[in-house]
């Protein structure tokens, strides 16, 4: 049953049945952008898209907290909408929040899928650490890029024309872009602004965690990791390190970039669906 809490913290992405699939989005992205991915998983159960804290705060609220705090939100919000273990799917930021939650509260999850999660190669980890030690965390290029984003539009159509075929949206399917427009904009004055405030997006990039590798070693539930072969995050060296570290996990690749759930949603969903159709492995 849909409740007010569900409407605030999650949105329905389709599907039906006893199993619950929980999709946590990337930084700056609303769950509606994952509708095409969810469509390929609808036969496996009801699908909820998660709305992290930045999508629920007042646009003028000061950003704060860590990724661990956002994971604590996810745990509390998940407990509020279901009492049964879920299939947790997370992309980028959402992958790490799902990982943290599954390590902290494994009983909440049947299994998890991490799609191009934020796992930095060693050299980049050192650079980020040095920036933070010198009080310059916001010099991280992704944080700078978020602060430069245009965040006001006269209409949804103006935003569509601005983003379609460009930048991070260049290879989005039409339905994924429409989902982003639906959930990623909110009315503001006589126009629209970003539903995920760019100051929050920048803060999250600037506070990207350096400890997620440790949590991977602590995970005790079935795990699948999917990457885009053109991803600038899960590079070949990171991919090889993951496979050495996690011999019991399932690994899959898609010919796409970091935004693979929006670029190749049917293929990503197909890989996940085949894994979900298999019995839960016992270690």
UniProtKB/TrEMBL annotation:
InterPro entries: AB_hydrolase_1 (IPR000073), AB_hydrolase_fold (IPR029058), Carboxylesterase_BioH (IPR050228)
Keyword Hydrolase: yes
Pfam families: Abhydrolase_6
Single GO MF descriptor: hydrolase activity
Residues that span the membrane, as ranges: none
Swiss-Prot/TrEMBL keywords: Hydrolase
All copies of domain AB hydrolase-1, residue ranges: 29-269
Name of the molecule in the record: Alpha/beta hydrolase fold-containing protein
Organism annotation: Chloroflexus aurantiacus (strain ATCC 29366 / DSM 635 / J-10-fl)
């Amino acid at each position: 049953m849909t409740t007010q809490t569900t409407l605030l913290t999650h949105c329905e992405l389709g599907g039906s049945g006893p199993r619950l699939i929980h999709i946590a989005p990337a930084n700056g992205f609303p769950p509606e952008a994952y509708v095409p991915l969810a469509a390929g998983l609808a036969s496996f159960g009801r699908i909820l898209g998660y709305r992290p804290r930045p999508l629920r705060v007042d646009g003028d609220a000061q950003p704060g907290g860590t990724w661990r705090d956002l994971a604590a939100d996810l745990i509390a919000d998940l407990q509020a909408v279901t009492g049964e273990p879920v299939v947790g799917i997370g992309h980028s930021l959402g992958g790490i929040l799902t990982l943290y939650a599954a390590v902290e509260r494994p009983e909440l999850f049947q299994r998890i899928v991490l799609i191009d999660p934020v796992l930095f190669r060693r050299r980049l980890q050192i650079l980020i650490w040095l920036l933070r030690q010198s009080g310059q965390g916001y010099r991280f290029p992704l944080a700078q890029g978020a602060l430069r984003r245009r965040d006001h539009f006269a209409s949804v159509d103006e935003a569509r024309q601005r983003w379609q075929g460009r930048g991070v949206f260049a290879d989005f399917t039409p339905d994924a872009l429409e989902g982003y427009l639906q959930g990623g904009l909110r009315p503001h004055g006589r126009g629209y602004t970003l539903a995920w405030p760019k100051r929050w997006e920048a803060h999250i990039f600037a506070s990207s965690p350096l400890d997620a590798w440790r949590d991977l070693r602590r995970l005790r539930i079935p795990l699948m990791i999917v990457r885009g072969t053109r991803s600038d995050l899960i590079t070949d060296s990171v991919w090889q390190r993951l496979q050495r570290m996690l011999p019991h996990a399932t690994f899959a690749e898609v010919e796409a970039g970091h935004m693979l759930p929006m670029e190749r949603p049917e293929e990503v969903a197909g890989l996940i669906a085949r894994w979900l159709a298999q019995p839960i492995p016992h270690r």
